[in-house]
Description:
Elements: E1 10-11, H1 12-36, H2 39-52, E2 59-62, E3 66-72, E4 75-80, E5 84-87, E6 93-98, E7 102-105, E8 109-112, E9 118-129, H3 132-137, H4 142-158, H5 177-192, E10 197-209, H6 211-250, H7 258-273
Antiparallel strand pairs: 1-5, 2-5, 3-4, 3-6, 7-9, 8-9, 9-10
Helix pairs in contact: 1-2, 4-5, 6-7
Amino acid sequence: MISEKVIRPLPGLGMLFGYFVLLGLVGWFFLGAIRTQDSMRILLSVTAFVLLMLLPPGFVMVQPNDSRVLTLFGRYYGSIKEGGFWWVNPFTLKKRISLKTRNFETAKLKVNDSNSNPIEIGAIVVWKVVDTAEAMFEVDDYENYMRVQSESAVRALASSYPYDSHSTGEPALSSHTTEVAANLMQQLQERLAKAGVEVKEARISHLAYSPEIAQAMLQRQQASAIIAARYKIVEGAVGMVENALELLAQKNILHLDDERKAAMVSNLLVVLCGERGSQPVLNTGTLYAG
Length: 290
């Protein structure tokens, strides 16, 4: 791999001043040669003027958070990463690479999760170039490489997790967003490191079941929610009945045999777990009247 070599070239303003001074001296020398009709001095003046004309292509302006990658006769010469007005070897080729932080949003990809359910998923990747040499020479087009690898990482991520968690503690795309985002960022950094790209942030921006199964999955989610709610209601009702029996026994308010306890528990559970309001029944006799 080609290692980045950051260079600090000559200041452009100083070189520009020297260039104009030399240009003035050559012009003065040429005019003197014309007046004296000295052919040798004329030839030297013309040669010096041609050489001076080779210097202007060496001037380069670098904006903040920008860079120039320099190559000289097919070899990597160095990278300018400091903003300013500079002068470099005029025979170098200068390729611009932005060092700004950029956003990329993948398309809505249709993939299967770990349970083979078709889902739609998309992600946002925040990235920047940190190694200009790798970005320029290790991959053909670092921006296209980043887009393709980002979509590949999102597909791999989606196939590693289920859409919904069906057991306690099971990581899922819809519920464990922090863990999923960390996994996505790790996969992206591993894939993009060779292109000189650093991933600053990665997160899921779109997540949904595919339209053909969305309705069925919605019903499944509703059923799971109803079952969970019923479980909580029954659990709470049992606790309340147990507490009621303990209080009755502790305060000697009422002593019930097993059969009467069972009847009382049944009635309380019906009242506490029923969806509709219960209808009170007035008992005018004894509890043990049969």
